[in-house]
Amino acid sequence: MTTTYINARLINPATRTDALGGLTVANGQITAIDGPQVGTIVDLDGACLAPGIVDIGVKICEPGERHKESYASAGAAAAAGGVTTIVTRPDTDPAIDTPEVLEFIAKRAEKDSPVKVHPMAALTKGRAGSEMVEIGFLQDAGAVAFTDCDHVITNTKVYQRALTYARSLGALVIGHVQEPTLSKGACATSGKFASLRGLPAVSPMAERMGLDRDIALVEMTGAKYHADQITTARAIPPLKRAKANGLDVTAGVSIHHLTLNELDVANYRTFFKIKPPLRCEDDRIAMIEALADGTIDIIHSMHTPQDEESKRLPFEEAASGAVALETLFPAALRVVNSGMIDLPTLWAALSLNPANRLGLAQGRLEVGAPADLVVFDPSAPFIMDRFKLKSKSKNTPFDGQRMEGRIIATLVEGELVHGTL
């Protein structure tokens, strides 16, 4: 079936353009841009048409905690949020550290999720930091990257060996750049706010120290490396130096660190407890500036479902994390509406750059690319109601907030998986 979408505002992250045009889809691929109108004609009446979001670092709680999130519920949430490809974390129970576990979750994802799923695997067995996994076998089973998530490997020799082996196989390693001893037990960023609230805090230097170590190891081994979350201004200079020195290093930032700051915690609101903790406003602005100049490459949702019981606890004891598959898009538009970046630049960080980093064909508007697309209205206002989210868990910090941006339709290989056209 051939469909031509006309009167669309095409958001092209590769060319950094935002212009009216048309696009034709056939057999799951983009077959023409501004070509002749063939097949079924769909008039988008000025709505935006962009590549679907590619979201790295999504936690889906299978196996082990299916009551928090399943592939079916996460897939529905992703489709509703304009996410057409989710790249899942291995911090499940048990961890995804063997080909057998990876194949189990891949089959479950293929069966239950309406969007594409690419799994990451652990870098060490059980994410314990002592023995590396069988990277080659896990690559063959479909792992697109390797990470121990927030379990930072403290044994530098083990980490160096894992990076060396990953380099020999061309595997991407994703690191969590926090110095683990300083960060242990912390739930806020050190400063006046944390002191007034009496919260255990960690200095922003813990991030700088973690990043410095990882960059040194990347320089030693030549590995492909991605820092999952850069959240402080202190981490920007070493990241810039690593890139200037030609190291194969990229970095991401979570949507929460891009749009919220430590003051949002207010009177111990646990939906704002995330890892790393929210930073000061100066750090948040520095993240946007780093995104605008290309120092930070990718925006992640860092979707982390938690049930009500684990969040309705004193702030120090509450679980960290927030759901974000459905809030990633409207929250990210806040940065555009602030005037600090434009829509094509935002979409490069949401779609093109993560696809490029993982070697995926998605994330672009060009002939031959998969027709994984999203149609949206960037100015449609709404009030966020967490109980309307499709995720099983409802722990969003944006509950009750005024937001803008409505997903009209999400297509995976040309097939409608959410909305109407």
UniProtKB/TrEMBL annotation:
Gene3D superfamilies: Metal-dependent hydrolases, Urease, subunit C, domain 1. CDD domains: DHOase_IIa. Keywords: Hydrolase, Pyrimidine biosynthesis. GO terms for molecular function: allantoinase activity; dihydroorotase activity; metal ion binding. Its EC number is 3.5.2.3. One of its GO terms (biological process) is purine nucleobase catabolic process. Residues 48-232 form the Dihydroorotase catalytic domain. It is an enzyme of class 3 (hydrolase). GO terms for cellular component: cytoplasm. This is Dihydroorotase. The gene is pyrC_2.
